[in-house]
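hey so u asked for the seq, here:
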Amino acid sequence: MSILSAASRILVFSIFCSSCSSKKEVVKADEKPVDDPYSLLVDDEEDAIDYFDENAIRFEDYTYKDDIKSVQLHPLGDPLAYPIIALNPNQRLELHFDDMGNDLPQYYYRLYHCNADWTRSDIIEMQYLDGFFSDILNNYDMSFNTLVPYVHYSVTIPNESMRLKLSGNYLLVVTENDNEENPVLTRRFMVVEPKVAIQSTAKQSPIVAQRPYKQLIDFEIHHASMNIVNPFRDIQTVILQNQRWDRAITDLKPIFLRDKILEYRYDRGNDFWGGNEFRQFNISSTQYISENVAAIYREGDRFVAELNRDFKRSLNRYLTYRDINGRYVNRNTEGFGDRTESDYVDVNFRLDHDEPATNGSFYVFGGLSDWRISPDFRLRYNDQSEAYECTVALKQGFYEYQYVFLKDMSDMIDETVIEGSHFETENDYTILVYYRDISNDYDELIGVSTFSTRDRF
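ran it, structure tokens below
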């Protein structure tokens, strides 16, 4: 539920109609102000990176093959938890994905250690890994009793073949035939070795004009058992909203230093748009209509789910309800195995809209789209139904989503056009603390704190 751009001191979005001869809607947004917290993230060097080679490994969550679906990486047994574990052999992550192709390729996986900014560390594999540096992914099962066939792959990390020695950021890379020039998917995860304690607070923005819309995160780092000589040089911090790296606030510096405590208390630069609670639908059953599903039926060799027509809510008052902050969980109420007996369903989205926008596009967005703008999730305008529509094949389960707008010639998505923003919205925040000793060649992850804003406002 993060919001992506600000306008002046408060983000105001207007929808205008063009001249009578055009009759098409234009969505406009002003330029970002200098005090927009997300402007802190601009990095000319990063912006210059362009992946001309579609097989170049990206140090982010990315799926390289169209046949790979339903990729999930989470702590063992907890599909809704974020991919963060302690440097402890008893804590593990599990990776799951489906291959929809007709072949049965040989997949391998490997791990890269990364710096706090997700560039690759300068250390070599034997410094952060015990065991094999790459291993075959040989745990797979064929789908059972489904209309759409697929092969489900899974692996747990760390394991007997591959053990972690250092804390920090890691990139899990799955390749075909152990060839790093033929990646299949990449996923980020973090390993923490706790050495500090983090205390946090969430409150409304102190800027009057932004108070109805924004959430501000203050925190303290307590390092009683650790001597930090130069926190301005040695400590890096990251604040994530709902585990979204595309809107991370990075490298804030402490405002106050006192006895073994670093205080991070800002009036701006550490604030997020509150957003709105996520929309939801449930396709765990193909026999019965569930939440936000108007109809579900079989059409040839596919199941089809028609969702209820969605409406713009940016001007509505805030309505509270429980959500899981844009994530999803695969589930099948008619079978015995959620991973291999869940079918793929063609889900039809429909967003009510009087006229098409002329300066951008709308997308379905959330964990179901891997938190990315994807052509598969682009909505196209239907003049007859006066709505934006798209159809996406999704594995049975419970899903959450929002509608976002991407302006032409921009890479900044905006949820506020359709969804609006409220300071009361429940969000998860994660604070990460990295430390680099002057004698080390890598960033240690020494503290993690994740909390919800529920009941904090």
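Residues 1-49 have pLDDT under 50 and may be disordered. The chain is about 5% helix and 45% strand.
lmk if thats what u needed
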